[in-house]
Amino acid sequence: MLDWTDRHCRYFHRLLTKQTLLYSEMVTTGAIIHGKADYLAYSEQDHPVVLQLGGSDPKTLADCAKLGQQRGYNEINLNIGCPSDRVQNGRFGACLMGEADLVADCIKAMNDAVSIPVTVKTRIGIDSHDSYEFLCDFVDTIANKGGCHIFIIHARKAWLSGLSPKENREVPPLNYPRVYQLKRDFPQLTIVINGGITTLEDAAYHLKYVDGVMIGREAYQNPAILAEVDRKLFDPQAAITDKVAVIKALYPYIEQELSRGARLGHITRHILGLFQGMPGARQWRRYLSEHAHQPRADAAVVERALSFVQG
Q1: pTM for the full predicted model
Q2: Which residues form the DUS-like FMN-binding domain (predicted)?
Q3: Which of these, 29, 98, 150, 257, could form a disulfide with 60 (CB 3.0-4.6 Å)?
């Protein structure tokens, strides 16, 4: 979720769910080491939270993993599933599925540098390398040589050329049974499934066959799904989060961030889809879109937008 699940997004999502494991957007090692901004910033409320890294040099990945642990992240994840040209040009992302030994070296270096879990997010294949045997060999190499025990598997292969990142999320067919088979063949590993999952009912079905479920785009575009996840997937006694109360709880954070120089629109872009399907949702989105980017816009803009949903 490059450029999407930033620290503002994660703060908002944590208000909706206490149990779900949250991921940072993918951050390159170069940005962390050489960038002027603080790419490791997050709110203490985010926990449990994973730092997702992009890179292919074992030493710099180890250095960044160590920095992530020092900052308090709960896990480190190496993304080798992103197929964008920008990522490939930096020699990281999905193209690394063709270099299993290098990935294993990267994971081992990170594991040697930190005591928190180091995980891998990947696809089921790339280009013509899309057989089940290829996937098994890849996972076996990373697990045995790198010491990785947790794999997040996007159940589509990636085309490294010819498709846009958006098309790579939609055109290659989903193959959930292949991920289920991977769990059966590697029962000692934690296998998390990803790709095309849009409901908690779907998530519950997948959990019959794998250890975890990652939901990306749907959770961003329709964050209300997170308001019910604690009760439906973690604790039947948990309360369903009140979405209006979540927005009101966001006001102090908004004012705090604005006082530090943030712009309201950078925060509100993450909350536009919260009331999807409810009366007033369109007016909520329109008002925020038209007013959040104006000079001196503050939490009062969000409060006014909320009045359309509350009636």
Answers
A1: 0.93
A2: 1-306
A3: 29
